[in-house]
Amino acid sequence: METQAPIAIDIKGLKKSFDNGKSFVLKGMDLEIPKGMITVIIGFSGTGKSVLLKHILGLHQPTDGSIHVLGRELKNMNREEIIALRKKMGVLFQHAALFDDMTVLENACFPLKEHRPDLSKKQREDMAFHKLKISGLDPEHYSKMPSELSGGMKKRVGLARALALDPDILLYDEPTTGLDPILTEMVDDLINRTHRSHEGSTSVVVSHDLHAAFRIGDNIVMLDKGKVLFQGTPDDFLNAELDLVKRFVDKGMGRKK
Known about the structure:
Elements: E1 7-16, E2 26-34, E3 38-42, H1 49-56, E4 64-69, E5 72-73, H2 79-86, E6 89-92, H3 104-115, H4 121-134, H5 151-163, E7 169-173, H6 181-197, E8 202-206, H7 210-216, E9 219-224, E10 227-232, H8 234-238, H9 243-253
Parallel strand pairs: 3-8, 3-9, 6-7, 7-8
Antiparallel strand pairs: 1-2, 1-4, 4-5, 9-10
């Protein structure tokens, strides 16, 4: 008998309205994100992918429903508890979101400076140096400012910063948006390699890129109109009979109808 993987993020009946219930972005979403896997969340624009991510981080409060992250129910937590939980989650933002007035090393040190006051400056820098190294950035760039970096280098710095606190969950918000095909493949490989090198970690990637989803995803979730339309492996998607899933796959993979 197959044993079900433990759940990192458990969402039940999640609803979100920004206009006092006149309309809903999330419409009773049910979703289980398994531990230890790369889950890629896909869907057409406006399906609620980014809103879902902000709920997982505790940046939005549900209008209704529940969200359990690493076994903790977010709505039962106060601000201090949510901040403590966020230390177990690293985020690579869409455009890296580096601090323009900080060097590469200072950017990578930032979470350690905020959340690990017990460490000396030298200890923080040593840890940040290690994260930058495993993110694939050469030391010659560590003293540079973000404006001196290429798009791919910024992604690597953003990833090093996300890894700073050794999180249990890594969240990626549209990590390949605006990148050319070569850089896109580089970022996909970086996500895959980072995940595989952190045993037991959970990765959640919000993406519009079906090629990337199929390349790195163990588990793929397709949203539509604020709900989960379909969930499964890449093979499940390729063989899906649902019309909207078939059209999304045909368009995303360039398949002829």
